[in-house]
Each structure stands twice: as structure tokens, then as C-alpha cells.
Amino acid sequence: MVLDTRVTRLLGIEHPIIQGGMHYVGYAVLAAAVSNAGGLGTVTALTQKSPEDLRAEIRRVRALTSKPFAVNLTLLPSLAPPDYGAYARVIVEEKVPVVETAGRNPAEWITFFKKHGILVIHKCVAIKHALTAERLGADCISMDGFECAGHPGEDDVGNYVLLAKAAKKLTIPFVASGGVGTGSQLAAALALGAEGVNCGTRFMATTEAPIHDGIKRALVKGDERSTTLVMQSVGNTERVFKNRVTTEVREIEKRNPGKIEAIRERGELPEEFSGERRPRQQRVERGDRHGADRRRPFVRRVSEEDGRRGGGNHHGAARRFGARAVEAVTRAS
């Protein structure tokens, strides 16, 4: 049985699995590995310090795979916004086949990318936003439920509600994003009307993900209570892994909530969280071994079962995920 959906046909991929954009994780080596395994790998544009750095990273992807891949361009509130136009122009100049947009009103960017023949997947946390993106010309919607890591929006609606509603309201294909990490969960998303899934955290526990092995082990060891929400008080909610910094941020919010600018003026936002420390220093303190991980040859699934066996095997995460999804769909049909 092959999982043939509108998403696989639209994107030219084998499995209806998209590796979502992730800051400081979505580098060429991970994106290429996912694409080579039959999914759609994604490079995160704003992880690159400049548009020219993004150009170089896109070319690294092409040196590692001939398969389709995407670039994520996230448009979020910022006191010092990047030059989105310059990043977008590089994406066009490098003829990237697919762009994943997220954040604020995408009208300008959907029009821009579509004019240059680029497929657009837009991430949405509400049906009304998905309908707007569809009307603007998006090719596919990524429905982000409240379960998702990163930015789940401010409406707190889970995927069981969002996906069922999207199936009734949308005419373009959509994928489920948030809380998906197994083949059976992909099968459940398909049953609710989605035509694929978008996974982020799921791909952090792979060999090519440029984060320290200790972080990968923590993710595998974690349970359903290991995440928390921060930045709710300033209207920019983020679901993150619980640690010292998130505890500090939540205490600040509880003590004296306010808009981002006001908190920053009071000097209370931890510098680790605000991103004001130098990127290299941040990466070192996270235990980031990006250079070493780039040289590793292939995605290796790091699952709870593999961890108990003390290592895991060397099949591609996306390929194994896809195979298990097929098995799950077969059992359910």
C-alpha cells in the first residue's frame, strides 16, 4: 500500500511527511536527509544570519539531494525584524521548489512566491486564517493544533477540532502539525481528513539534527508533561521544553506581565530567551555540535525503543515513519 495523497502528488514526495521549519535545527544536512528518505525536508531561512548565508545553505541542500525540499520563512513580531524581502529574493533566485510561510498575514509573500512559480504551504492555527490563505493562493495549509511546539497561536484549539473543521471548510489539501510522531498518529490525521503531517520535534532526535545528544536523549526521555507555554502574557505564545530558562520566564510573566517592549525596557527578559546573546555563544551553551553533525551520513531514528537498546539502527527516520504509517493505515482500513 502506498500513501498517495494530494500532498504527495503536489510536492513530488514518496511519504506525506514534511519536516517543519525549526530555528537552529533546520540546516541543509537534516533537510536533505529527510528528502532523501522520501519526505519533504525544510531549511529554516532565519536560522541563517544573512540572505547570502541562506543562499549557501540552499546550495548545500542541492549538493546532498536531488529530491524536492522547502525553505521556511517565518514572519513573527520582533523589535528588530530581519530583511524578509532579501531572504525571499534569495529563495526565488535559487529556484527553491516549496516555501513554508508562517506568522503574520502572508498576502504579500504568497503573491510574491506564486508569481515566481513556487509552491506555498502556509501554517495556520485557526480555520479563518486557513481560508484566507486559500483565498490568497496558498497551495497547501499546515494546520497547527495547540499541541504543536513553537508557536501554537492564542486560541488554544487542538487538532481533533481543527482537522475535522478544516476537512469541511478547505478545498486545498492540508497537513496536520502538532503532536505527531508515529505512524499511527499519521494514520489518525489522514482519517480526520488531513493529507499528510508536518513534524518538527520528531526530527530533532535524529543524527543530522544539529543539537547535542544530551538534548536528544532528554526529548526521548520526556513525557506528555515535559513541555510548557511561555510568552502568553505578551500575545506571542510558545510551546517549549521545560528548563531553567522557561521557569524564569514564566515567573517574570506571572510577576509583572506586559507587552514585549515594556518587559524589555524593564530589563527583565532573560538574555538567553530574548536572543540578545551572540549566536555562537548560544550554540556552545546549548551543546550544539553543528559542524560534526553535518558530516554524519544519514538520518538515524532515535526512538524510545532504540534508546533502551542502547543505540538504534541506521534506517532513515522519515522512511521508517512512512512504513509504519502505511502499516497503521492498512490496519485501520
TrEMBL record:
One Gene Ontology molecular-function label: nitronate monooxygenase activity
Composition-biased stretches (Basic and acidic residues): 266-309
Protein name from the UniProt record: Predicted protein
Pfam family membership, one: NMO
InterPro entries: Aldolase_TIM (IPR013785), NMO (IPR004136)
Biological classification of the source: Eukaryota, Viridiplantae, Chlorophyta, Mamiellophyceae, Mamiellales
Region annotation Disordered: where it falls in the sequence: 266-333
UniProt KW Flavoprotein keyword: yes
